[in-house]
Amino acid sequence: MPDTHFYRPNHFYQYDDYDRTLVGERVEQFRDQVRRRIAGELTEEQFKPLRLTNGLYLQLHAYMLRIAIPYGTLSSRQLRKLADISRKYDRGYGHFTTRQNLQLNWIKLEDAPDALAALAEVDMHAMQTSGNCIRNVTADHYAGAAIDEIEDPRIWCEIVRQWSTLHPEFSFLPRKFKIAITGSPNDRAAVRVHDIGLRLWANKAGAVGFEVIVGGGLGRTPMIGKTLREFLPRDELLAYLEATLRVYNRYGRRDNLYKARIKILVHEIGAEKMREEVEAEYAAIKDGALRLPVDTIEAIARQFAPPPLPHRPAVVAEVEALKLADRDFALWLKSNVAPHRMAGYRIVTASLKPAGAPPGDASAVQMEGVADIADAYGQGEIRVSHEQNLVFPHVAVEDLPAVWRALGRLGFAEANVGKITDIIACPGLDYCALANARSIPVAQRISNHFAELARQHDIGDLKIKISGCINACGHHHVGHIGILGVDKNGVELYQISLGGDVDFGKTAIGTILGPAVTADKVVEAVDALVGTYLDNRGDGERFVDTYRRIGAQPFKERVYAAV
Amino acid sequence: MPLFSEKGSATILEPVPFAEWQQRPAWPAMSLANTDPVEHLAPHVGRLRLIVLNFPKFSDGRAYSQARLLRGRLGYTGELRATGGVLHDQLPFMLRCGFDSFESDQKGFGEALAKARTLFSVVYQPAEDDRAPASLLRLSRRNVETTV
Fold first, then answer.
1. Which of the listed residues A163, A483, A490, B134 has the most CB atoms within 10 Å of its CB?
2. Burial of A434 (0-12, 13-18, 19+ CB in 10 A)
């Protein structure tokens, strides 16, 4: 019994009886709603928002269930359950998304309540992973382990998760609402492109608070968020969020689906006016019931206390020897292994982007394998990154060879994290009802073309992001190379943009290079872009740095000569 | 449209639209569009007996904010009625925002209202129904544990 065999306490928020009661009651409420839908008591129009706020979409071929993984943190036990559920109610695999969720693509409506009940057994749910409400809150996937962290953002994600769950006032917003939180100066949570982004930082006096960024987003109108508050005391977070959401709920546009996000409100009334409105509302409620008592914050913070990691050697002879003996291991250390706040440990990323595979997919067997690795070498903990990979936040340096070999057996040891084949792609026309074009096959073609690892490492850090339509689930706007699928008179074409970035302080929306290219020319186009970079790069310059220095013209000439 | 009230008694006074009511503010029953500024009612809430808030579609949630402002900020204690797109499954939210009467032609609405408050025995956030959120219950439980 793996569950008990490897039993260890978790080092993140654990449900108590209040949480379990609420999630259980929610499952029963949904069971009744599904029964009424099947009995014809609810029309599809009436049922739609109910199923959406329980994570159930109607896709091209079947229902899709989107399961929340709050702040991307999972225990090995939870991941095994997800594998179970994917086997029992789906086709034995799942897709990890850019919002740290897991999607199952072949759910039957009548099974959905049972699948949710199975999730509840491991303290998980699918609430508010869809619909016009506050969605699952995302965080830095290195939280609690990162060397540059000021405070674990997951403490605040959990506080926001509870406040936003079944919020009676904000369950029928003009449009969906996404919040991301980072606790590090090196933002790995893309906080400037969320409806609200929160960045924890310490001011000169040493006090920690939030920079509150509002109105960022991708989609058809990409925008960088505006800072409404430079420094918000932590205990006032919920009051400030409630004030912002209330202003949005009252004044956000509802006449046009495509202009309903908060970014449009901020854009239309201006950041100044938005700040005035929010601050006025906030002033009226800040001393009320939403102010967080110190005891409440501390009780949640304690649950995120890092695991007690025993001292382990920082330099290990076996690791050094393997590095010299095996080129793939050496490359893997470079790209998939990041520093940990403790010297004898590292943060390891399992790449869900092996050459030619659909980005972010994992089979039930692979999920169980990852859970086993987490138990054996990683404190039983797994993270989902918004780049659609899985992360072991606490791995001893000594265990790196064993982890690498085990990941290799799962097909997740590709040394490509941050490289050209670490592609973000939405499900696209293969699954999605909104898509104009396929994304996954394009990602697979690029991935196969650049599969050679030494070449990838020579090309260096390069983020390719692919969306199958302008809703931009693949974040193409912020890819160093962004690829957007469009439909022109029934033909799938791909528009290429350059220079997008989500790094803090450098966040930028990419610029369209020129006319869209056909699917069979995308690889040639990317090859031409890479060639232009390699011919022009200066010392230590990444692709995006060279692009910023020399501009689009040389890239453009070579691409359109090639396609 | 059939009218349902938790208390079993709803006022029979005819609500007048906001613009009309401004002409005769002594009348104690009014109906607001979800874009009408509830803040303007501050001086009058003490003598109002019925405010009707409108849901043009069930998916248009502006009136939830109006309801909370009327109850929480303005201290309105009269009848607060929801009309328009009012369906069973919104009841837990509406009750928490302070609504206490409902116009709905959905079948079985009365039964749904009768059990709406029992669907969720835990809430996560303060609202207008005076239910203590889980965070507060946890605090008092911890305090009891430490004193014992």
1. A483
2. middle
